[in-house]
Structures are given as structure tokens and as C-alpha cells.
């Protein structure tokens, strides 16, 4: 399977372990990632609160490049990127005046013809059954709390993906691979990632709430599909411990668990650089 | 000649795409907001102020910059109002009119530093962005405790290979990125 690929800034920066994990996992599943040429930042959490036109233009530039490269679908592993790209794509598609304005601003024709997808949707396109057939290791050591956070499902009008109140797509995939996902309350409760450098005390409290609920529900790890959730829940966990978090909770990307199931090792998945270290048992050793 | 009176509600609608009068003040946005407990003006009252045109008043509220854009309000609104979009519009207006509250300086500085880095490089250079943000913030507030806290994080990031001083693959057409910012009228 061939798919367009938009890594986004985080995967080329502090979350380069996510990019290693995604790339290794996709190679193992026979998915060929065709990286967008000369992509730029999607605007992330900043553009939409400072300038509305910029918040559409930055993703529009990337969509224009994707259209020029004739990419039908574009995989963005970061949900903030995929949400911003999708929102801009839909707005441009449904509004002729905006189409013209954005094409002029980004100096590339952009029509809003790209299907933007997240990590879970790529696994769905490969097929959960196909992945299960390729699995060589049962994930029976894992009791994950599948954490969807904010932007995988919200806003639902833009994303039209899973149930925004009780999503189950990650749970279903990991169950098929032998893991035992727990029922818990904080699947879609914000971890505070957007303010991780601006309001440490608030972020510690929000991180604590999510992680303690995962532990209380019987989880032995939290699985995310977002670089911001990962870095926040991992890096700020020491602060959550000070608020009473009862023990360390290792944080995995979804691609890590799928990777382990299809036989990839900790080095290939880049599991050795977490703030909260991962036990050998959970590394699949 | 007197200046025309600005219709601030219309400006919020234009920026957010929200139909403000669809809101019937049920309070569901506030009930689900993960930040409501720390907000001076909760989402329901933000919506009411946007409806009545008291936009410059609510643009001063701390709460618009405490919002994490988690989109829970928008997802749950029974009238499908883009509540999070209204908050974005108010943030933009608070910057354009320079009315954001003094307590919001840190968040505003962060978002501006982020976009300065994107304007310069086409992509966020996290180390450069964080340095720009923390240095400018320091010279506004002289918050030494904050510098120490941030300084302690740096070595941990470096030890884990999570801090980079150069972009892995730089953007070729950086001039275009600057033109995009200019055409959108972004001042940072």
C-alpha cells in the first residue's frame, strides 16, 4: 500500500521516537510512506488562536503540495496536524471564494481534494485481520488504557472518526492482537498538552487525573496515537507523582504495540528514550 | 467625522463561522470544559458576551487563554455552535486590540514565539522556539524560578535525544513561508 506522508514538526523534533516507531511499523506492514516534498508546519496550537487566515493557509500550502504530487490520501501521525489539515481541506472544498483566496496566498492551486488520515485509519486501511495474521507475538502482557485524547475524534463534524464520547478503534485493534484493554473513564479527557510549557501546575493536575484513572482501572500502560499526549504524559509524569500518582505508568505509541506484535524489537521501535522507562517485559523482550 | 461603530459580534461570527444566536445558554459547554474550574469567565458566559457584543470586555478574560482547544464544548453543543472557534476569534481580537490580560502574557508569548519560529524556518524548531519564548518572557517578568524549572528540563531532554539544535530537514522555500505570513497580515 502506498500513502502520502506528512510527518509534522514534532516527529522531526522532540517526538522523533514516534517517527521511528511509525516508520518501522509501516515498513513491517508493507505500507510505503511517500513523504510530502518541502512540507511546512500546519500551524499547530498557535496559528488558530492568533490569525484565522494563517490557520487555514499553513495547512492549505501542504494540501496544495499533496495535490501537485497527486496524493489521494495523506497520513499525518500527529492528530493536531491531521485535524488542522482536514479542517482546511473541508473549508476549501466547500467554499469557492476561499479556494481562490488560499490558492493565491499559498501560491499553489489548492482545491481540497485530499483525504487526510490518522494512524488508526492507516491500520484500518491495512485491515485489523491482516495485521493479526502477520502478528508473531501475542500482546498478553499488556493491559493498556487506550487514550484517544482530544483531536483524534474532536471536533466530530470535521473528523467523522469513531465515537467522540466512547471511541473503541484502538481497543479493538489491540484486543485482536491479544492485549486486554481496560474500561476506563478518561479516554477522551484532555491531558493538558497544549499548555505543557506555559502552565506546569495545571498540566500536572490534568496528567494526574488521566494517569491515576488508568491505574485505578487496572491498566499497566497507556497507549496513545499523538506525540503531544505522549510527551506530556511521559515528561510531566514526575509532577503527577508529586500530586500522588501511585506508580509509574509507561506510555506507548499505538505503533509500538502493533510493532511488537509483528516482531519488531525495542531498538527498531525506539523504546529506550522515555522519561518513564519501559520494563523489559513490556518491551516485548 | 466619527468612527463607525464596530459590530464585534459580526466580527466574531466572521472569524469563527459560528452562528452566535443559536446558543440558548444551556451551559453544557461549561459543564464539560476541563478548564472551567480555573476560568474567570466560563464558556457559557463567553458565548453570551459574544452574542451581546461585549467582545472587548471578554477579550480581557484570562479564560480565553486558559482554553486548551480540546474541542469538548464544540463536540457536545446541542446546537452545533463552534464554541472553541468563538474562543479562537476572541483570542485573535484580544491580540489585534492588545486587550489580553496581563496574566495571559505567558501563553500569548508562547504562541507568538511558536509562530515566529515557523515564519523563520517553515517548521517549528523547538529549541529555538523555547529559547525565544523563555528569554522574552524572562525579560518581561524576571521570573527566576521559571528559568530554573525550565533549565532543569533541558539536560533531561538532551540526555534522551529529544532536543535538537538544527532542523533535521530544512524547508527549501522559506521565502514563500514569510510571504504567506505577510499576506495573512500576521504581526508577531
Structure commentary:
- The complex is a heterodimer of chains A (285) and B (188).
- Chain A has 285 residues and is α/β, with parallel strands linked by helices.
- Helix content of chain A is 46%, strand content 8%.
- In chain A, the strands form two sheets. In chain A, strands 2-1-3-4 form a four-stranded parallel beta sheet, sandwiched between helices.
- In chain A, helix 1 (16-28) runs parallel beside helix 13 (254-261) and helix 3 packs across helix 5 (96-106).
- The radius of gyration of chain A is 19 Å and the shape is globular.
- The two termini of chain A are 29 Å apart.
- The model of chain A has no long low-confidence stretch (mean pLDDT 97).
- With 188 residues, chain B is mostly helical.
- Chain B has two domains: 8-96, no CATH class; 102-183, no CATH class.
- Helix content of chain B is 59%, strand content 0%.
- The longest helix of chain B has 17 residues, at 105-121.
- Chain B starts with 7 loop residues before the first helix and ends in a 5-residue tail after the last helix.
- At the A-B interface, helix 2, helix 3, helix 5 and helix 10 of A face helix 6, helix 7, helix 8, helix 9 and helix 10 of B.
